[in-house]
Amino acid sequence: MSDATSQLTTADGRPLKAALATAQARARRKAFFLVAPLLLFVLITFILPIGQMLTRSLYHDGFSAVTPNLGQWFAANPEGTEPDEAAFAALAADLAKMKADKTAGEAGTRMNYTVPGTRSLFTSTARGADKLQPPFKEALLAEDKKWGDPIIWASMRAASSPWTTDFYLIATDRQRTADGGIEKVPENERIYLWLFGKTFVLSGLITFICLLLAFPIAHLLATLPMAKANLLMILVLLPFWTSLLVRTTSWIVLLQGQGVVNNILVSLGIVGDDGRLAMIYNQTGTIIVMTHILLPFMVLPLYSVMRTIKPTYARAARSLGATSWTTFRRIYLPLTLPGIGAGALLVFILAVGYYITPALVGGADGQLISNLIQFHMSKSNWSLAAALSGMLLAGVLVLYWLYDRLIGIDKLKLG
Amino acid sequence: MALPVYADPLERVWYYTYHAICVAIFIFLIAPILIVIPLSFNAEPYFTFTPKMLRLDPEGFSLRWYDLLLTFGMAAPDGVRDSSWWADVWQNATWVKAAKNSIIIGFWSTIVATVLGTLAALGLARSEMPFRRTIMAILISPMIVPIIIIATGLFFFYSNPCSILGTECGRLTSTYTGVVLAHATLGIPFVIITVTATLIGFDQSLSRAAASLGASPSYTFFKIVLPLILPGVISGALFAFVTSFDEVVAVLFIAGPDQQTIPRQMWNGIREQISPAILSVATILVLISISLLATVELLRRRSERIRGVTPQ
C-alpha cells in the first residue's frame, strides 16, 4: 500500500505523498497565521505582565543592592559562621553608605518583612553610622543589642541575595530560624494559609449553594416546552448581563440595616426594631451576593446537559417499578453529572479569585485572598502580593487544567 | 413538565412544592435587579420604600436623583437650563464624563477584541490548526485568571512596558491606550467562545466552493463567511463591550483621574457614602443590559435560522 502511494504522482510529476504533506503544512501554517496576531497580543498584554509580576515574588533587591560589603562577607563565609569583627566592619561600612545615600529605610523595610520590628533598627543605627569607631562589634552592640541576635544575621544572609524564597515562606506562614532552618510562625500569627483555607471553604460553600439553587430551575427549564423555557431563561440571563456593581448595589439596598428586607421583617414583627439582622458587610453578605452573581454560571451548563436527557428514561424506570425518588437517584442524577461537574468547577474557579464583591460587601470577616493581595499592593509590599498571587494562580490553573481535562474548554457556553 | 396521571398524592404535593421552590429561586435571581428601579425614583434620600411610595402617592416619587446625575460636578448647576447649561453638563458633570469614558474605552476595546478574536476563531475552527487545545486554553485564560492578578501584573507592566527589552519607553498607566488594551484582553475569551460556537455549525464547503469559483480568500471571507457568522460576531462583540463597560478592578489599578469610568464612579460611590444617585445609574444600566440581552437573543435566533440549525 505504501509502495503504491509513493509511486502515485501529481500532474506536475511530484510524488503524491510529498505534495499532500506540503499542502497540509501550508494549511497548518495558514490556520496558525490567523491565530498568531491574537496569540501575540495575549502574550504581550497578559502572559508577560503576569510573568513579570510573579518574578517579584522571588526577587527583591531592597537589601542586597545597598549592602555590597555584607554581601562579600556572606559570600566568603559559609552559613553558620559566627559574625566576627570583619562582619561587623562590613555592616558598619554599609550602614554608613546607607546614611549617605538615604537608603536605610529601604534596607530596613526589606528586613522588616522577614523579621518584623527591624526597620527602626536599621534607620536608627544608620543615623549615627558615620561616627562608629572600631572595634565595630562592640560599637554596634552598644548602639543596639539586637545586632548580636543570630536571627538578624540569618535573615540578613538570606536577604543579601536579590533572589529569595523569603516571600513564599511568609506567604505560607513560615520563618527562618537562627541556625538557617525553617519553622512555622507562632499559631496566632498564621494568617495566610488560614485565609487560603477560608477562601477555598467559602468558595466550596458558595458552589454548593449555587448547585442547590440551580438544579431545580435548570430541571424546570429543561423539561418545559422550548418557547416557555426560552422566556424563563431570560430571568437567568438578565442577571448574567447586568453589571456586577449594579447587582452588588441592589443587595446592599436590600440587606442593609435600614434596608428593604429588614424593614419587611420588622413590619411583619418577625424581628424587633432593635434586632435587625446583619446580613451585609460581613461573611453572610459575601456568600449571598456571590451566590447570586455566580448562579447563572451553574444554571447554564446544567441546563444544556439536562436538555439532552430523554424523559423516556425516567418513564422506563417508573414502568419497571421504581419509585420517583429511586428514579431520580439512580437514573436522572447520574445523567446530570457532567453538567454538575462543569458548573461546579466553573463556579468554584471564579469564586476562588473573587475580589469586587468581598471588597464591597464583605466587611471585616468576609474578605478573601484576592482582597489580601490588594491590601499588600496598597502597602507597597509588592513581593508578598506577588507571592500570594503566585500561589492563588497555581491553584486556579490546576482547577482550569482539570476543567479542560474533564469537560473541555471548547464546551464553555455563554447563554 | 406536567404532572403524570399516575402520580400518587405525595408526588402531587411534591410537584406543587417543587414549583413553589422554583418560583422562589427565580425571585431570588431577578428581584435584586428590579428592586432598584422603583427605589431610584424615591423622593427621599433613603434606600427603602417610604410610606408615601407604598401608597403610590405622587409626592413620594421624584426624578431628583436622575437630575443629580446631570448636575453633580457641574460648574454652575443652578443656572437656567439653556444651551450653555447643557454645555456645562457635557463638559463637567462627573457622571456624564464617566459615561463618555466608558463608551470610548468600551468601543475601542471591543473593536480590538472582536477583530483579533474573530480572526483567531476562524483559525481555531480549522481542523488543521496545530496545538489547538493549548492555544484555546491560553486565549480563554483571561476569563479564568483572578482579575486581581491580571490588574497587579498590568500595574507593573504598564509602568514601564519596555522593561523586558531593557529600555524605557514611557508609561501606559493613566492612559486610554492602557485601559483599552487591558479591556480588550479581558473581552477576548468571550469573542472566541461565541464565534467558535457559531463556526461549529458553519459549512466549510461553502468557502471551498467560493475558492473553486475563483474568489480570493479575502473576497470569500467578506462575501461568504462573514455574513453567515455575523450574528455570532456581533454577540461576541456585545459580550466584549459589556465586559469592558462593567470592568472596575483593572481601571482601579491602571487608570488615572482622566479615565474615570461608570463602574469606577459607582465603586467610589458604594465605598464612600452610598447615595440614591447610584440607584438611578443602576436603573439606567439595568435598562441597557435588558436591551443588550434582547439583541443577543434575537441574533441567536437569526443565526440559528440562517445556518438552518433548528432549536432543540
From TrEMBL, chain A:
Keyword presence, Transmembrane: yes
Compartment annotation: Cell membrane
Keywords per UniProt: Cell membrane, Membrane, Transmembrane, Transmembrane helix, Transport
Annotated transmembrane regions: 31-50, 200-221, 227-246, 284-305, 331-356, 382-403
Record domain ABC transmembrane type-1: where: 196-403
Any one cellular-component term (Gene Ontology): plasma membrane
Family: Belongs to the binding-protein-dependent transport system permease family. CysTW subfamily.
Domain of life the protein comes from: Bacteria
Keyword Mitochondrion: no
UniProt GO BP: transmembrane transport
Protein name: Polyamine ABC transporter substrate-binding protein
Membrane disposition: Multi-pass membrane protein
UniProtKB/TrEMBL annotation, chain B:
Keyword terms of this UniProt record: Cell inner membrane, Cell membrane, Membrane, Transmembrane, Transmembrane helix, Transport
InterPro entries: MetI-like (IPR000515), MetI-like_sf (IPR035906)
Cellular-component GO terms for this entry: plasma membrane
Membrane-related topology note: Multi-pass membrane protein
Entry protein name: Polyamine ABC transporter permease
Keyword Protein transport annotated: no
GO BP term, pick one: transmembrane transport
Source superkingdom: Bacteria
CDD domains xrefs: TM_PBP2
Domain called ABC transmembrane type-1: residue spans: 99-296
The organism's taxonomic lineage, starting at the top: Bacteria, Pseudomonadati, Pseudomonadota, Alphaproteobacteria, Rhodobacterales
Family: Belongs to the binding-protein-dependent transport system permease family.
Membrane-spanning ranges: 16-41, 103-125, 137-158, 178-200, 221-242, 277-299
Compartment list: Cell inner membrane; Cell membrane
